Amino acid sequence: MVAGGAPAGAFDPWSYRDDAGVAGVNMVGYKVEASDGSIGKIDSSSQEVNASYLVVDTGPWIFGKKVMLPAGTVNHVDHEEQKVYVDRDKDQIKAAPEYDEAATDPAYRDKLGGYYNDTYAATPPGLFR
């Protein structure tokens, strides 16, 4: 598989792809690029097994809202440029369930993971697959 290709098997929202270039790297402060442009900077991240994610501060893009991007949305990382590329567009990220740092229950994770799983299935073939 080429870097940034489709994850093997079914989409797993809470695990980074093997070839994304994330392992053991602190990405706080990296810029985040959606498929159609910049969306903000990483505010915090987790590399916990089966529970990995990025919290992105969108700044003025969507009025300072923070969004949580499950690890499975990360297409690849460019450490030299300090950019993380995700395989969703701005509208998909903007429409995601609002990030709630107090919500740690499985229902919140299921809702967020389900949203991104549905948007992955909606990605046209040939784009980031």
Question: What is the topological layout?
Answer:
Elements (H helix, E strand, L loop, with lengths): L30 E4 L2 E10 L6 E5 L8 E5 L3 E5 L4 E4 L3 H5 L11 H16 L8
Tell me the β content. 25-35%
What is the CA-atom radius of gyration, in angstroms? 13 Å
Q: Major β-sheet, in short?
A: 6 strands, mixed
Instruction: Determine the oligomeric state from the structure.
Output: single chain
Q: Poorly predicted ranges (pLDDT <50, ≥5 residues)? A: 1-7, 123-129
- Termini separation comes to 11 Å
**General form:** globular
Average residue pLDDT: 83
Which structural class do you get from the secondary structure elements?
Answer: alpha+beta
E-strand count: 6
The proportion of residues forming helix, as a percent range, comes to 10-25%
Number of helices: 2
In N-to-C order, the SSE pattern is EEEEEEHH
Spatial ordering of strands, largest sheet: 4-3-2-1-6-5
